[in-house]
Each structure stands twice: as structure tokens, then as C-alpha cells.
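Before a colleague's protein record goes any further, I have to sign it off. Thanks in advance; the entry in question is below:
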Amino acid sequence: MERAANRPMRVLVADDHPMYRDALELYLMRDWPQASLTAVGSLEELDALAHRPEGQDFDLVVMDWQLPGGEGGAGMDRLDAAGIDAPVAVVTGHDDAAIAREALTRGACAFLPKTLSSVALVQMLKVVAVGGSVVPADVALRMAGALPAPVGAAPVGGSGAASDSGGLLTERECQVLEHLAGGATNKEIGRVLDLQEVTIKLHTRRILRKLGAKNRVEAVTRARDLGLLSGP
């Protein structure tokens, strides 16, 4: 969701370690002094954001992969349930290839180890805040052969764009994409998949973000080029 030029950036920090959360907030305020920060430390607190005042949307989410109250990655689903549609940077103490793959598959734009320096971390979050995708070069090297890069993403310090998004769309996103290719509206897709229209909108935005597309037509075109659609 685009941010109005006349309002401060809104950042959601979700992490259950107070010291890391406080340090992260200091890093962010150093580079974005006018930013409005909201901090939560559990899935329960994340769920409560579904009842936030209308119009108080976030522009960036920085979230620990493992939050109290559920399995790793559960926070990604809770963001959807709370109607939070913002670029997500997953921070974690485990730079495991399988976790990285799952994080990106669930819609994260970045997978960042907590061992990063404050300068490097903020630089990467700036990339995510404007719609980019990023994985530190050393992490990307350790993931080589295990993690397909998202379209348009390149490791920090690297160059070029990935040519294959295979595996980065969830099963549900693939279903929505097929209906988009057929020209169905959000309401029609929701009726077929038995989902609320707002949920279809969230899936569509994530599909566009993952494929690096500006609109539905471009997303369908890229999906066809990548062989992600079942039809011709």
C-alpha cells in the first residue's frame, strides 16, 4: 500500500526479545526519525492489530520468524488475518535454507539474520520499504541450490535478476493466479474459493509483489512467460 507523502512512515516491529526489539527501534529511528513505530512481542499481540483504527496501515513490517504462541512462520498468516498488507522483512537467528525458502514462499520480501550490523540491516530494510527483495550475499551463497530467488531479487552486493519464480507462490496464490488469468474479479474468485474478497485482494497484492508486476495484466503475462499457468 502506497504511503501518502505528508504522513510519517509506519513500521511494525514484531519480536519477542525486548533487547533486540529496543535496539532495532533505535536503529530505525536513527535513519527514519519521523517514523511511527508499533512494537508487538507475540502472535496474540499481532492478532490484536486487526482491531486497529481504520486507516492506520503499516508501510513496513520487521518480524521475527518465531513468535510465541505458534509455530515458526505463523506470523505471516496472522498478518493476512489482521489485514496488514506491507512489505515484510523476516529477521531470525537461524539462516537455514529451508526456513529462508518458507519465509519467501509465505510472502516475505527479505530474510535477514540477526547477526547483521545495524548499518547493513537498515540499508536492507530501506530496500524492502520501497518494494525490493533482499537476501545478504553470504546467506544467499549458503542457500545456493536450495533456494530459488524471487523474480527481480538480487543478493546485496550482487547483480542481475532471477529468471525463475518456481516454488515462490503458495498453492492458494497459484489458485488465485489461475482465476486472474481467466479474467475473474476479486468477488468472483472469492466465491469460487470460498474466501472473503479482502483475502483475495491480499493474495493478489502478494502475487504482484512476488512477480515484480505493476498490475494484474502484467502479472498474468509474467506468469505465462515463467510457465506458472496451466493453460496456454
